[in-house]
Design goal:
Helix content: under 10%
Strand content: over 45%
Strand order of the largest sheet: 1-2-3-4-5-6-7-8-9-10
CATH architecture: Beta Barrel
Number of helices: 0
Radius of gyration: 19 Å
Low-confidence stretches: none
């Protein structure tokens, strides 16, 4: 007689997988030159191991000020909760800012909402046919903002 040593009480749940909507941001992976009337620098996007988060490192001169930092982009999932519906991010920079955003990609239009989706502060840009440039502008409530173009230097 064979003894059954399987104990389902201690079986492991299946490993989670990244939300498929994150793959819409794949076109960001790589290094980009960022330029415009009020901004100059570069950004690099790469996937964190596991594919749940996209990480951006940036190094700009913006409005005459040097700013470096990083952004972590993905679905928020506080302990014990389901992942957020929207793709959210948080930026940490060298001047002490922590900024929250929501990413949305529909077709060739990238929208980055400042704070929450629908905010009056947002970036909206269009991808070129070859996917190697994104041209758009930040819009701020009450007027203002700035134009920028992101041009691919290297693919991811």
């Amino acid at each position: 007689m064979t003894e059954d040593t399987t104990n389902t009480q201690y079986s492991q749940p299946p490993m989670p997988t990244p939300n498929p909507d994150l793959k819409s941001l794949e076109r960001l992976v790589g290094t980009w030159k960022v330029s415009g009337p009020d901004i100059d620098g570069h950004v690099t996007f790469e996937w964190m191991e596991g594919g749940f988060f996209l990480i951006q490192h940036f190094d700009f001169v913006h409005g005459g000020h040097k700013v470096k930092g990083m952004e972590i982009i993905g679905h928020l999932q506080p302990f014990g909760e389901e992942p957020s519906k929207d793709i959210k991010s948080r930026v940490y920079d060298t001047v002490g800012n922590t900024l929250d955003y929501v990413y949305e990609l529909e077709g060739d239009t990238l929208t980055i909402w400042g704070g929450e989706k629908g905010s009056p502060a947002y970036y909206q840009g269009q991808w070129s046919d070859d996917g190697n440039t994104n041209t758009g502008a930040w819009t701020y409530p009450g007027g203002g903002g700035y134009e920028s173009t992101m041009t691919r230097i290297t693919a991811g």
